[in-house]
Protein: PNPLA domain-containing protein
Amino acid sequence: MEQDPAHFQALALSGGGFRGLYTAQLLADLEQHLGEPAATRFDLIAGTSIGGILALALACEIPAARIVSLFQDHGAEIFRRRSLFAYFKSKYASTPLQSLLADSSLFGERQLGECRHPVLVPAINYTTGKPVVFKTAHHRNFQTDKHFRLVDVALATSAAPTYFPRHVFNNCQYVDGGLFANAPGLLALHEAEFFFGRSPDRVHLLSVGTMSTKATVDPRKNRNGGMTSWGGINPVDTPGQLFGLTLSAQESLVHFMLTHRLGERYIQLDDDLTDARARAVALDKATPAATEVLIGTAHERAKWAIGNDRLRALLDRRSNTPTFF
Structure:
């Protein structure tokens, strides 16, 4: 059967810190089922923060299982606290993550233009105060980003405020793209429509989350809106609480909008954290308990996905041959 070139499939990977282990393991299970890179099934991969790191890896056809190993072997190193109160510097240094990404077994010195599949990764250029989306040269107008190192793009999209320092390259300071596009599915749909020239009714999108916690208020606490109202006894926790609320609200909004726009052509793979599991899992908890929850749940979700007719139909179709300019 001849492949329809107007058919377009996109993969969107959410941010979520160490919770990205869930995403990585789920993708690794899908790749094991396929027997080849997951990127061969998608015409575009979009990813934010840890999802951006995963997106870049997939676009280079680096196995998702390698990212799983990175989490398991080096998660505690990445999230080794260097500042107790984070008044004057971020909780964690970016040096361990940068060293791991720059290893020859991962990104090394590769540039965005060396990706084998189209990819987009959002961040915020704090120097200009504007959002930016790093892209491969899959459109004739995209001729600059392809010269950027993958390591720089990865660190820019994952520089979560107060968790990691701002990443500086190209004479600009960048912060986490999760502040405006933690769930990048709408960016992927926009890219398909306006830069790939595909009709929205021909776009199919798979979104993979990070077991994001729905941030809600504790009704027993004060509702005055001050620092202790948000951060509790330690007001330094306030930025983290606000960041978490931003991420969870975005996830819900994007999910509803993509459901309305694409209907059954939109599939989301994610799991809710129960109260008990939520105490073990967080953006920056790289513990054996968190690892057990994330990997175990990912295995179960992958098992469900492989048996799902709609997702199996999506994975049975190979992507169009990409064109780069």
